[in-house]
Amino acid sequence: MEAKNNKKTIWAWCMFDWANQSYNMVITSTIFPAYYVAVTANAKKDNMVTFFGHPYVNTVLFTYILGLSYLIVVAILPILTSIADYRGNKKLYLQMFTWLGSLACAGLFFFKPDSPLEIPMICFGLASIGYCGGFVFYNSYLPQIASVDQQDAVSAKGFIYGFLGSIVVQVICFIPVLKPLWFGITDDALPARISFLIVFFWWIGFAIIPFFMLPKGQPNAGSHNYNVLTGGFKELAKVFGKIRQMPLLKRFLSAFFFYSVGVQTILLVAASFAAKELHMKDDDLISIILIIQVVAIIGAYITSKSSEKYGNVRTLIVLIIIWTVLCCFLYFIANDMQFYVAAFVVGLVMGGVMSLSRSTYSKYLPLNIPDTASYFSFYDVTEKLSIVVGLFCFGFVESWTHEMRNSALALDCFFAIGLFLLIILLLAEKKVKKAEIAIPV
Q1: How does pLDDT run across 275-292, given as a tens digit for each residue?
Q2: Under CATH, which architecture does the 10-215+227-438 domain have?
Q3: Which residue intervals of 334-371 are DSSP H helices?
């Protein structure tokens, strides 16, 4: 087994974030949502579209497709992580999902304003599946490549690489979108479609580095005495049984589920909200997202330092308090300037809460466990289920009330519950530490 804290291995691991955040930036955060809203808008202002013969509000369909993709990931990942754990080949699945996601982004190049929505939205869903699926196996490397005392810093470093990579690829896509005549482009839709192709080359191109440099994984066949196709679900049940015996980890996952509903959903629907509710132009929206990414680098660094001084849970409590206030503020946003302010705050707390959540979970795991893929499968299933709940809740409320603002307000309930559970976790953590001090050496 390769020694932990190897600089080259950690760099290769971070480069996966550098590669795949191109999807997160262009496809879910900026160009694709704005392009989709623009080409699906209609003169009747009801923004209704047809998908396989069924009518939907355009942004509701967008939200539902995302939610369905995450639900599919939840259904298939227990099987795949079980096989990866059994054979020790989690890097193979990292590669498979990356190819799936990047090729699906390339498929979006053929999404023209007059195209039927079925094929493009299937590609959109497959890209999401590829991104989410790859992240599960990527996350499971963290305890394998970094010691407990280094996991906060390494996790934050991965997110910082991701933010930097997303900024660079966004600037590259930004040029043809804003200055199409520099390239002799007269088709208004072509610059956005070119950006989807750029994501393909960026994502798969830089992912080759971790493909070659990350360790393959350790086979764990001896621990399995059941069919690997059904074993993933049994393994999750087994992990759940173990987690129930770990008071702190159990409480953390409960809090994580609820605040993740809010955090992840807001990040996924923010661009659609700005394009539809505030009628923001593509260049304004891209500028805002770039600001978010730059500020997020600072936020991730500050969060990492704060966790060292005040502890992970206290830092998370502060971050979720900010998210709770911010989510309430979204309901009242009326102009671009207010959205800029909200975006700046999102940037400060976005990377920090995701990075710290991942490293906190990793710290609560038992030391030297052989099946990190199974434990991180449980973590990712929890996160993906929270996203499914958040997206379908958001879409349902918008479909019911015809107001995205009401959907944002509904998410605040999840933040409030998550904050309450984090406070309970902090109190439980203090009791555990007091008990440890009381034990004679």
Answers
A1: 777 777 766 777 777 777
A2: Up-down Bundle (1.20)
A3: 336-364
